[in-house]
Amino acid sequence: MNKWRKGILAFAFVILNNLSIAQDMHFSQFYASNVYLNPAFAGANVCSRLTAIYRNQWSGIDKAYTSSLVSWDHYIKRHNIGMGLMFSRDVAGSGNLATTLIYPTIAYETRVNRKLGIRFGIQPGLGISNVNFNKLTFGDQIARGGNVSTVETAPSSVSYVDIGAGVLAYSIKYWYGISFNHLNQPLESFYSAEETKLPIKYSAHGGYKFDLNDDEETSITTAFNYRGQKKFDQLDLGFYYTRQVFNIGLWYRGIPGLKRYAPGYSNNDAIAFILGFKTNIMSFGYSYDITISRLTNGNSNGAHELSVSYQFCNLKNQKGKRILIECPSF
Asked: In CATH, what number does 3-317 get?
């Protein structure tokens, strides 16, 4: 293979690796996927819990991003341990660049006093990235007008061990946590000549619930999630209003006025509107992101997100037995 072909191949894989790094998936309803947000959330409820969430981002762009996640977690009271298992899949681009994550999770809970608890979580797992080279167009195909590339391709799949951890402090009214993903910085390169490590991702998050009446059926909850990975960072900041079983939320994503990635490109991403319905057993949520970056909502069509969660017992009957984290779950 001559230098020209090697150059094309190296460039293609640099693009693929950079894209996979940038595409550590995120959700507007980040507390609906709280085991992904922070492994310390595993078993945070008294009941066993099953959660699913799906995100279709920038549907106006051909073959942009889709993300899906399913998680289960359970609290073992006898040992003060929470356990969980999470599966997720993220697909992007014309080459169907996909990342599949399989994360078992374990968390330990201890109480500082009757009103304050601390949780520690760890999430050792397996990551699998793959790409369909048959759906990619290489430079020699364009130059020769042919359908078959002569460029030698690398393996279409790579797997790696991935480790995350987190800590959470919580009471009935508030919660604050930090978490880290890719602590071991695993290699994620398709091309053996490019040893691309997956950078550590960090997140700081928290919130506070304000009850508006004595029966706790009406409340306003504020929350934030600041996350960063390599040179990228963003802040999700917002609130939601709850009245009985219904809630509505408004969230902003970005860091306005404080950071620009390039002249004319401020760190503004989206405004999200969220509608939810929650009982003591089930919760549903729908959110729509309006793109406010230079991509514009007219080009991207924003992002749609749907979540559902099922509790395997009635939370109303469990109150008072344990400190329950009143964090947003749509």
From this structure: 2.40.160.40
